[in-house]
Amino acid sequence: MENSGNHQDVIVPPVEGVAGGGTAYGWSETVARDPTLLKGTIDPTKVHSSELVHVWCMPSTANVGPQDMPRAFEPISLLAARNERESVQIAIRPKFSWAGSGIAGTVQVQCTDLCSTSGDRLVVGESLRMRRVVPVLGVPDALVPLEMPLTQLNLFPGETTAIWVSIDVPNAQPPGQYEGELIITATRDVAESTAQFLGKSERHQLYRELKNCLDVVEPIDGKSPDELVERVNSATSSLRRVLLSPPFSDLFSDNGLVDMMDEDAITNLSIRLKLNLTVWDFVLPATPSLPAVIGISDTVIEDRFGVEHGSSEWYEALDQHFKWLLEYKISPYFCRWGENMRVLTYTCPWPADHPKSDEYFSDPRLAAYAVPYSPVVSCGDTAKDYLQREVEILRTKNHWRKAYFYLWDEPLNIEHYEGIRNMAGDIHAYAPDARIMTTYYCGPSDSPLASNNFEAFLKVPEFLRPHTQIYCTSEWVIGNREDLAKDIIAEIQPENGEEWWTYVCMGPSDPHPNWHLGMRGTQHRAVMWRVWKEGGTGFLYWGANCYEKATAPSAEIRFRRGLPPGDGVLYYPGQVFSSSQEPVASLRLERLLSGLQDIEYFKLYASRFGRDESLHLLEKTGMYQGPERYTHEHMPIDVMRGTNLD
Amino acid sequence: MENSGNHQDVIVPPVEGVAGGGTAYGWSETVARDPTLLKGTIDPTKVHSSELVHVWCMPSTANVGPQDMPRAFEPISLLAARNERESVQIAIRPKFSWAGSGIAGTVQVQCTDLCSTSGDRLVVGESLRMRRVVPVLGVPDALVPLEMPLTQLNLFPGETTAIWVSIDVPNAQPPGQYEGELIITATRDVAESTAQFLGKSERHQLYRELKNCLDVVEPIDGKSPDELVERVNSATSSLRRVLLSPPFSDLFSDNGLVDMMDEDAITNLSIRLKLNLTVWDFVLPATPSLPAVIGISDTVIEDRFGVEHGSSEWYEALDQHFKWLLEYKISPYFCRWGENMRVLTYTCPWPADHPKSDEYFSDPRLAAYAVPYSPVVSCGDTAKDYLQREVEILRTKNHWRKAYFYLWDEPLNIEHYEGIRNMAGDIHAYAPDARIMTTYYCGPSDSPLASNNFEAFLKVPEFLRPHTQIYCTSEWVIGNREDLAKDIIAEIQPENGEEWWTYVCMGPSDPHPNWHLGMRGTQHRAVMWRVWKEGGTGFLYWGANCYEKATAPSAEIRFRRGLPPGDGVLYYPGQVFSSSQEPVASLRLERLLSGLQDIEYFKLYASRFGRDESLHLLEKTGMYQGPERYTHEHMPIDVMRGTNLD
Question: Which PANTHER family would you find in this protein's record (chains A, B) (predicted)?
Fold first, then answer.
């Protein structure tokens, strides 16, 4: 109440708008090309769809919510490497309501193949996919697959609907200019079209009438010719009456039976959006340059999908999750929590001597894999025997360089650190070259390693050595002081195979990069930009499916109490949104993928001009300067990506 | 970033929730009574609906949005006088998705009559209505009528849907206890049920097959008996095949043709909510005790509905709006703005000698009416002649005591004030007892009436007298200093027929009572509580339909630029939300009505115990103590209402 009670200085409120005939009325008048078509009942088959809906295009880093207002449509022009996914959003908002049944109207959205001038194609349904952006807690997040190449969408009055269009460029796709179309057509709504359908009671009546025709003539044997003729006459006249009855009447025009060619969804009243894609002559590496290891809670899978630990359905469920997540260029590990944040982590649920083990670990898309310290599924062996056998098999493999052990989540005191040391000792006894990863954000609280917390945190590698090779620290510790990364790196011994990785979880919070719901799109994507700038060589995220417990696949998704919304949840069970069992990605998972792809661009640039120049590029484009200074707009990302083409 | 960069004092983040097996997992586990029914595809006809949806009840002052979380269901127990409307909200949120097609599921909502023990009824569809609460700009606001007594609603994953249930108690309703039910049943979704329908192409094929049967036997004449038998055999076997074909196959069970009784929407799997209403022995007065005059822009009606000023469709459109708004116990006036905030206001579009004039002005529900200063529709008369004739007719009528002239909206300088004086002089020449109303929030800026703004504002009555009888001031001027109301009242001369009215428009803003979108429900309702406490005898609101210009009835609603959302818009064109032409009320309009009804309760209490005691009651219940101190909860309202029963 900036004005209340201040009567010495009554401020004149702006009158604009209070005057019904004043400047505020009609400021953004919607002018129809032919207003008479929009009076009364609007027939979408008689009006150009652009009269009925706004359509505009938004970059993949935009969060397009129901309240987003229309913008001018700008042609879609994308750039992608081979083995890269690039995405863009199409926003649609009704200008009028034409459905008359609670929704504003229905639109058909159709997508064509993208074709190059030399005849190469990116095929709809394979390389091209459309997903509907569905809000979660009111924030655009879930990407629910749409049927391809043609889908119907209900639009709601005063609400913007967004479609996420993704193009996956295959490895072997010839570089070049590709062009396709998105075609949007306002249609009659579903309720109206069901009037063309025959319901149960009409079918019932039809059945009775036809059955009656049959009963009149049958049995034929034993009837005199005259009686037969009479009965056939009766039956045929009944049948003729049936054929002229309402269930069939709309099949006729003046020229007889109408043509049953499928009515083409595309008409000259459709909105046609050109989609241009440049595939450039660079192939993103099959194996991501930065291992991004991401946890999948097996407990959550067991509870929600009702699969018993170790059963064949359980293996199947885990297999489905593993394969689906691999598409996002991340390296999944399954995990379950024990006491004191001890974790059992494993990338492959099968033991090392199972054929699936090699299949998983040899997959070129997998950059790193977790080996369990003890049996995942009880197998009669002691933990030690099991560990020994697993390690002895795996260390002979070529993929062993991807292996790591993740034993404890964020040790907090001497007892926790001792736990890590003991387990690491067991592992190193069987494989001195095994990599142990430890996540932490502080030293042991009951035995301070230094006089202040940050110094104590810095001393953890010295304290844990040689029982940890991958020192994985929280970005939250660094806060906005990027220079501290140098202090951390100074403690790492890469010459002895040590690495510095980072992670985000609850923190850091806004405005720093993280994957919480409600953060900006560039903020989600910048998680990986930050990694590149700080110089970490790997990344960990604690959970991609860690929503609240539920015991049915289609149960409502709830985030866990005490966590920022979206934390630990990067995708959803498909059953919540449709009858499909395929998981539903979040926008945030797509932006994680984009960030990982950005790293390949940085790396390419660095390979040509050096790492320092790549950091200079980040700064010069305004894309990323620090955890509190990164672009809110999409443009600098396109500029960065285009730079590599020069 | 409360923690960033402060490394002397790294705070341990709460670990709750980060641990997948820790306290955060499973804290609000959804336990199904029979979990096996919820695995895989859920059949809503086999599971109790309470397993599939949360249902709870919310008071009419709650803003129930899509993100609202379930609460325990408490029985609905309402109190209403006769000639009163009382409302309550039912919130529904899916626990699971069972539809498998983008929505979580469909529910049927059914409502029974309310019956008293002595057999009196409040009839569904007449006294009982259900409307769906639809968000506008993301805020629950529009109340879109639902079919009665049975309606279908689509629920969306992770979204709460609210139904606004209103009971209008007729004047003559016998007091007593009434009871009815709301019945909510999860059903198969529409897409699934259309599978039971026969589409165009199936009907086409069916038609061909039947036609073929006919062609085989016809013409009958001229066929030998043998040939006929052969052909009839062929036709009957075709017909038999048709009757066993998919279009009819679902009509059979093992026991032959299934019974075609309409499947009852209510099953023993339904959720049944008791709805109790006490109708008490008090009749709200037919004519509201507080005239609430509210502007309707005729310009907006003309543009949006495409009716030409003065045409028969125009009269019809205005008539529809007038009648609809009268139901809300407000006194509508139509208005159009002229230069310098001069306004032409009129409650009845027809001239005083037209039968409609008496019909409008004699309506007991109308508490006050605006008489236009000049012809609304050009009629050949000069403005003066017109005014003289109108006044001379109206002043002879019994309803003349309701008449007022509203000539200028918020005069700001001497020229404006002179304009009012001149017009008022003309009117008083013909009718010395005519009431002129003037809205204002300051004195003339170019000729200060006092040394400070508030003192100048206080002096306006002295300055305008005798050219204004109703001094209508902005609540914004008073701010949080209610005591200033006494200073204003001290300047008014009720003994000379003068009154003090108030208005809200852009201001006051939050936390003060007003009707902006996004304010609390009690904040909307408190607009009228404030009027009662301050002692004004009438209320004005500038616009109920003043949304942005559009030229088609179903065009998207946009609020005017420069105004707080919802300001000047209390209802919406029905065509935006459905095929109905009936306007769609906002929650805020319902709360305005509730506030006006509250005033009748205050008045009743004051008639028994005096006005001071009525103010004490407001304070004692915690309902309203001042523009910044009023209840956020509904309970005190029920307590106040119940007090009158003691």
Answer: ALPHA-1,6-MANNOSYL-GLYCOPROTEIN 2-BETA-N-ACETYLGLUCOSAMINYLTRANSFERASE (PTHR37193:SF1)
